[in-house]
Amino acid sequence: MSFPAETQLILTTPDDPRAQELMDEQQRELAARYGDDDDPEPFDPAALGGSGGAVLLALEGTRPVGCGALRPLLDPPVPGTAEVKRMYVRPEARRRGLARRILTRLEEQARALGYTQVWLETGTGQPEAMRLYETSGYQRIARYGYYANHPLSVCYGKTLQEG
């Protein structure tokens, strides 16, 4: 039996082609789960960079296997609140705790950037994501912003404790 190379989590930029590749894969998977008629949120990767944002990449050796990102919550703007975006782990790297590691590191990064809480959105067609968030201390919150009128959206929030 062979084991995967140790997984490293690194901060990168939104224009990193490895992160873009994973985010594109995520969009294809979401289209397969929800259908092409789903109305995805308009997304500008540049919103993940710069002040208040972060992009995290998971690498096994040199191969990208997962990602996640933070940005300031924009819709509605809530002071001290970051939004977790683009959480994704490739199918062959799932069920090993990698998504939880990415989420934990994003929370650490959010605290370092001065955020006091994080919000995120997932969908009813992603029960594994819902389970991850619920077992990581997230509470369901009202659908917000772009997702307010999307019945398949499920939103979560978490208050960040002092590190």
UniProtKB/TrEMBL annotation:
GO MF, one annotated term: acyltransferase activity, transferring groups other than amino-acyl groups
Gene3D superfamilies assigned to the protein according to its UniProt record, in alphabetical order: 3.40.630.30
Alphabetically ordered keywords of this record: Acyltransferase, Transferase
CDD domains, alphabetized: NAT_SF (cd04301)
Keyword Iron: no
Chain positions covered by the region annotation Disordered: 1-47
Name of the protein in question: GNAT superfamily N-acetyltransferase
